[in-house]
Amino acid sequence: MGKLGKSTLTFENPVYIRSGAAVVGPMEGEGPLKEYFDEIKSDLLCGETTWEKTEAKFQGEAIHLATKKAGITPNLLDVVIGGDLLNQLIATNFMAKETKIPYLGLYNACATMAESLLIASTLISGGFAVNCAAIASSHNSTSERQYRFPTELGVQRPQTAQWTVTGAGAICLSSLGNGPRITKATIGRVIDFGIKNSNEMGSAMAPAAFDTLETHLKDTKQTENDYDLILTGDLASQGHRLFKELCKKKGMAAGQNFQDSGILIYDKKQDVHSGGSGAGCSATVWSSYLLRELSQGTYKKVLLIGTGALLSPISVQQGSTIPSIAHAVVVES
Amino acid sequence: MGKLGKSTLTFENPVYIRSGAAVVGPMEGEGPLKEYFDEIKSDLLCGETTWEKTEAKFQGEAIHLATKKAGITPNLLDVVIGGDLLNQLIATNFMAKETKIPYLGLYNACATMAESLLIASTLISGGFAVNCAAIASSHNSTSERQYRFPTELGVQRPQTAQWTVTGAGAICLSSLGNGPRITKATIGRVIDFGIKNSNEMGSAMAPAAFDTLETHLKDTKQTENDYDLILTGDLASQGHRLFKELCKKKGMAAGQNFQDSGILIYDKKQDVHSGGSGAGCSATVWSSYLLRELSQGTYKKVLLIGTGALLSPISVQQGSTIPSIAHAVVVES
Question: In this complex, how many residue pairs, one in chain A and one in chain B, have their CB atoms less than 8 Å apart?
Fold first, then answer.
């Protein structure tokens, strides 16, 4: 364990990724990553009376599936760490109530999965825990009405808008194992580009993603070419283009190894405009697609950059800009 | 570093409390702890245009005062860890934007300060950070309208209701120093007593506080008498009475060493009904009163139990019960 440079942690005692599981909604199940997801739901309620309860249920199922793959039961987890986008994190709170696992709730918007992996890794590498689950989720129907307009209103969305992913992703980490490892992480700081339009979150988050990438590469004395894949959370088309422009301005190539989870999860013909977003976006893509491709040797060293827009409807209504954050996590197979 | 029993972490590499600072509103400044607070504001806006911005400002001032007392500048902090009660943590997000310190956002309702101290201690004891600030806040005017009724409505409150504290508390922790130390911490699990009345949060949280205390004493093979002070977060009169009843049922004395921050912060004649609450309640009491009394030798070994009611207005409206959590932190001088 230790610290590199300004903001990067290094995990000398190994942190193994034992397993991951993703439970998604119908639209995600029609997208390009459908073969990777563990469970695809055919509707947005799944027998519950409210979307919020469904989101909590998805989290519980993701925890159960991930622990099963790791060969443990949920009660063997020392702690579950994570969050969601709902006010007061009710999806995660109610999952934690059902699973009865010691629980640490986090909120860094759509960067929550990266934050969860980072904190879980410090607990494991620091010798404070053996088995941890990192989790995050979002639900299109709970988010849309909380952040934007009543779902029934059918308001037209601009082309810069993103589509909130319905899904929960859980990753089991352990001090025991032999699979891919989390070796480093960089804690982000809040960057505010001055954007006030809550339908341009990708643009708001791009400078934070760039700041964290630059800090990470400086702290670790590496370049972009040291990574097979630099996978951002949910910048989507608009934000990812800006992120690559910022990188190119500093002399990087920002080529084929730069990918974004919000672009990967939907097909263009699904009419999601800029792409996917939500705390469940990176959580589901990383816990399914990324882990499978790592195990198949497609990637050997990956930099995950979770990106979060730290706005609320109140802060937007009060005329505030959108502060953003990004946390980075290094996964090596 | 290591783990004791089911849920307790032990910090073998020392985690020193370097300093603390509390910035509070006018009503807290008229209460019994007024001599302990670093800054008492004479109004609830303090020159800002919205209460939410004022809450963020209080956090920034608490960070500046606490770092000044610790003999460092905010930019020497490796990370600031914390949260507040506002949807999407906008007070903490905007503080982190202004201070530009690497930031990890947390949410466990009024248990957030205990959670912040716990996670900051793992980072320091694990060797991942030298200086961390733990922070939490609440503001009566931002909370009341978010959780209950429009402030202007003047709705009558039942006697079981608590008064949300206006204030921010910050504590600077470091691997360097010689003052009081955080030596252990217990991660809580979610306990749901079945209470649905959001004006009875003390009662909802009492079983969670008891569960964490019981787990902590079992994990560490101690009794209640090993602590000069067992200081809960914000159970207030109603919740604290229930908490002590639960302890007595298990054979504890639950005597004079059982205190509650929500009872300490206001005088009965201040008409706050059951007492204080809010993420700022434990944060301001612990960062001022507790630290001063520790330095003066009044207490030598203290168990802090942060208590959080994990409800949201949506979960209450949907008929859900109030899940609750408590995290414990041991401070020894």
Answer: 197
**C-beta atoms of A88 and B107 within 8 A:** yes
Q: Which two tokens stand for residue B157?
A: 């409150």
CA distance B151 to chain A (A): 15
Judged by CB atoms closer than 8 Å, whether chains meet at B105 and A108 is answered as: yes
The per-residue b/e assignment along B254-282, b for 16 or more CB within 10 angstroms, e otherwise, is: beebbebbbbbbbeeebebbbbbbbbbbb
Query: Predicted ipTM?
Result: 0.97
Chain A hits for B90, Cβ within 8 Å:
310-312, 314-315, 320
Closest chain B C-alpha to A90 CA, distance in angstroms: 7
Q: What is the DSSP string of A108-172?
A: BTBTHHHHHHHHHHHHHHTTS-SEEEEEEEE-HHHHHHHHSS-GGG-PPPPTT--EE--EEEEEE
pLDDT tens for each residue of A134-192: 999 999 999 988 998 888 888 888 888 999 999 999 999 999 999 999 999 999 999 99
Shortest Cα–Cα distance, B34 to chain A (Å): 30
Structure token pair of residue B318:
């949907």
Is the CB of A312 less than 8 angstroms away from the CB of B90? Answer: yes
* Angle of the B236-249 helix axis to the B201-220 helix axis, nearest 10: 40
Q: Is A253 helix (H, G, I), strand (E, B) or coil?
A: coil
Average of per-residue pLDDT values in chain A: 96
pLDDT digits (tens, 9 = 90+) for B268-303: 999 999 999 999 999 999 999 999 999 999 999 999
